[in-house]
Description:
Helix content is about 25%, strand content about 25%. A hairpin with a 2-residue loop joins strand 1 (about 15-25) and strand 2. The chain is α/β, with parallel strands linked by helices.
Amino acid sequence: MHLQKACERNIGSDVVPTRFAVASTTASGYHCELGSISGLSESARAPIDSIFEFHRRPTENTQQFNVVLVVPTGIGAEIGGHAGDAAPVARLLGAACDTLITHPNAVNASDLNEIPENGLYVEGSVLCRLLMGTAGLQPVRANRILVVIDAHEDEMFVNLAINAVNAARAALGLDCTQIVQLDPSIKLIAEYSASGSAVGRVESVERLFDVLDAYRHQYDAVAISSVISLPSNFHMDYFRSDGKMINPWGGVEAMLTHAVSTLYNVPSAHSPMLENSDIANADPGIVDPRMAAEAVSNAYLHCVLKGLHRSPKIVTDPIGMWHHSVLTAADISCLVIPDGCLGLPTLAALEQGIKVIAVRENRNLMRNDLSSLPWATGQFYSVDNYWEAAGVLTALKAGVSPSAVRRPINEIEVEKKSSEPHTDAVRTVGAHS
Length: 433
């Protein structure tokens, strides 16, 4: 509530927040970064709920052990900040729980998507709403996918996108209801924030919304493939940086999909189209393994199609959220995040009483001391790496205190309380007429 009021004081009345993070915490306060959409009040669209809306879960469902894995987009995470390089982490943690819920940034790797079989592929804003208690997830057998692509001036890139869709139809069994070319298209512009995180701007997004409105009853999820504007040298600079350059594409993609999933309550994901054939034909050489998936693809689309194929249905109706097939905040046992990441998922877990594991080895741009938050006893665990995180998850699932399998075992504190004898007095007050 404090952060919501602070945002309202600093943004215009026509600006609707869609993404929020605390980039750093200092003695004087918080440095916050906010993604937003403007112009909604000028349209006929119904107002959307605040991203800060919070519903406390009434209890925890302990029949299953379900884990949320978050690697925030655009923060240069050592693991998961490149091209699907957190997928092995997802598969590791997926083996330690009943259901693993994660988002595209963790597992999208151009033509690859190695999400575990028990994984749910959930857009970032939906994942936030799940933990905030305002949305539930209902697993599905399959989705009908609407694919929206740029009407690229070079037909080769249009053909690549269409071939990627047809390949998924033939090899994955994808149900694609329609491919729509946007001409003129929306405009995605990649930028960096003051903290160095990848962010950006999306212009003329109403063109996309018009398409989504027109086909609204013909799809369950939306895949978008479009050009992202950025300096031409960024491609080679990124591949030659040995993983040191923040991936510039993901931030603005997250801005777009947050808006789509928030407004339409459907799963969505974006893949970039290359700007021209010169970039497509450039040889980056042998690149950092974390970037290799991007170096061997031209369409970048299959990971999105595979993820959306079985992405869960978003349930916001309070009655519907009580259905036994719907996962809500009450069904979440633990959140795993890179150390220092402070945003709505972390704050929601804190308030919901959900256990949190912060991984120090996954270094990133965010500078927050998570241990200073008012955690309940046994709610927060700081670990060195994801191996250790998997061990803590396994212990929690088994009902074993993680500290019990370490040595030495700390001595327990015994608090002595002395009680002075006292006399309870009962006084009767009479009423006199």
